[in-house]
Design brief:
348 residues; alpha/beta; seven-stranded parallel beta sheet; four-stranded mixed beta sheet; 8 helices; 23% helix; globular
Amino acid sequence: MWSSARLPHLNKLVLDTAYACISCHCAALGLALDTFLSLGAIDSLTIKHLQDDCQTRRPEFAKLPIKPRKLHLLITPWCDDASMDMEIHIRHRHAFFNVQLNATWLEPLQPQLTHLTLHCEDYWGIYPRWQPGDLKFPHLKSLAFGKWVIAHDWQIDFITLHGATLEQLIFTRCPIMHAARLTRRQEHNLWQEGLPGTSRGGPKTTNYFSDLRWHAFLPRLASDLPKLTHFSMGRGPDDWDDDHVSTSWPGSGFYGRCVTGHTGFENRYSQNAVIDWSRYIIFEGEDGPNEWQDADIDSGGYHATARGWGTYPRGKDEDWKKGVQFPDCLQKDQDALEDLRKTLRGRW
């Protein structure tokens, strides 16, 4: 029946794949996805908990007579409760962001995509790295990121590249990485190399300090995105803070899925634009991105401390110590956001 039936009125498809592999339904769900895409007229495709290592859910968009114009992905990576410090080296997530995200999901949809959402349940963008490369969506109107770490000009250039069409831009828990201690693998994105053998001490690192700040970034959005009328940024709902729920695959030992609440994904279009402590982040080598906590939010100050860090800052170099501290630019960032909001209100 499915081989000959057409579903012309099926134009919106939402799949939640959180427990597909755990229940051994991965292949069946992949077949259902291909079936709906080929028989329906899917205009909007949403996949929640798209698992980074899954081999069966890779639709061949190029072969479809009608391709989605709206693509919304909530990406769920593997986690390792036994060795959480090794999660940053799990190849599945690196292969997904470095190869599969572009090749499978984005490149085939370039000509017609109007809405794009890319959320992940762990920080991404720097390591694991996502480089848009030559990607450009000539009809893109709405772009939403979740937990995308910003540190380089080429990331901003990807956004401003769509100035002729972009009307809506949303950042949910998307921080600027203002300081980092990067290993050689991280600095040069050498995720395909094998891990070095055991040795005394950790790998050598390189310090990286970015002078990018939100009060410099936000004015660029006003000038380089002339059609932008809606912008929001912020940490999103509290469920982003919840410890991940490890949904173990039978027989996989301590491995599981980093599944959290995803209200930030669901409510992205109604999110307010706010300046809060989630706007900057620090990258600590093998521990990866590390968030900050506002320890004095009610006193009018912005005293921030790193959560759970015992290594940053260290040393006697005062310039280095200052570089790793939370950027002291709260008022400038707030003023820049308010200026942007005024500009956008004038375009309504």
